Amino acid sequence: MTIQSPRVEIACDESGFSGTNLLDPASPVITHASVNLAVPEAAEVVAVLRSRFRRRVEYKSNHLLQPEQRPALEWFLTALRGRAHVNLIDKPGYVAARVLELFTEEPSYGAGTSLGRDHSEAVCALRQRTVFLTAFVDLTRTKRLRHIDHDAIDQFFATMPADLPALREVTSARVEEVMVRLIDGDPAYPPPLEPLVPALAETLLFWSAGERSVAVVHDEQSALTPGRVARLGAFLAEAVFPAPPPLRSFVQVDSRDDPRVQVADLLAGIALRRTPKVNESLAPYL
């Protein structure tokens, strides 16, 4: 896709976000959708869908995924052709990668993005080790924690697979050092259990395309704090220099007040709940 404007404003929303409960088998994926539409364009899309559904209240993607609404779904996806993008985040894979990024590397806001190290081989081996990944999540859930939880560290090492070479670099000393910095709120460390941060990074890299800066309007998300967004923006600017900084501005809004975010919400929900019948139609966006 070619984006002609040197300045782009996108609207974003997600579906499937479950906070730090990243290993719920009923919700294994998060989708982060973005659309490049002007407010009047998005309002027209919403108005057309409302007229088809004859609904005056907010509706969700499950309405569009009803079999009898297939024509409306196809119209919606066609209307967004070349104007939308979706990131899919596999939650178990994300957690598996975070083990390696947190305990074998220096902290970076490139972790979990295409700018970070490729841990795909180890992730494939780790993502099914649910007991170990659960111990990692329990260990790194540091909100309201003031001191190292040595029992959580012991459980982490007790469940660590002994047959994976990638984990040989994970030592007790390194884990304790990282945990102290996480508990102290070291700003150099990206949040280990917030996949929306790398999802936003990938979205910015896609729309900026190494040529432009992007203004973001996002549905309200507690994970995307001003500090985290600022640090992510600074990291990306340094990573792509001398290209323009990918992030120009970032504001959060109530989705009910912005039709562009409503459209992004619908697209994220469709991608999350996609069925084999709609995979082909969704392929250009994923």
Write a structural description.
This protein has a domain at 90-183. Helix 10 links the parallel strand 4 and strand 5. It is globular, with a radius of gyration of 20 Å. The chain contains twelve helices and five strands. It has helices at residues 39-53, 61-64, 70-79, 91-104, 120-126, 130-140, 150-159, 172-183, 196-208, 226-240, 259-272, 276-282; strands spanning 7-15, 29-35, 84-90, 213-219, 247-253. A five-stranded mixed sheet has the order 3-2-1-4-5, with helices on both faces. The model has no long low-confidence stretch (mean pLDDT 89). By secondary structure, it is of the alpha/beta class.
Structural class: alpha/beta
What is the mean predicted local confidence, pLDDT?
89
Envelope shape = globular
Give helix % range: 40-55%
**Pattern of helices and strands:** EEHHHEHHHHHHEHEHH
Number of H/I helices: 12
Task: Detail the topology: elements first, then pairings.
Layout: E1 7-15, E2 29-35, H1 39-53, H2 61-64, H3 70-79, E3 84-90, H4 91-104, H5 120-126, H6 130-140, H7 150-159, H8 172-183, H9 196-208, E4 213-219, H10 226-240, E5 247-253, H11 259-272, H12 276-282
Parallel strand pairs: 1-4, 4-5
Antiparallel strand pairs: 1-2, 2-3
Helix pairs in contact: 1-11, 4-5, 4-6, 6-7
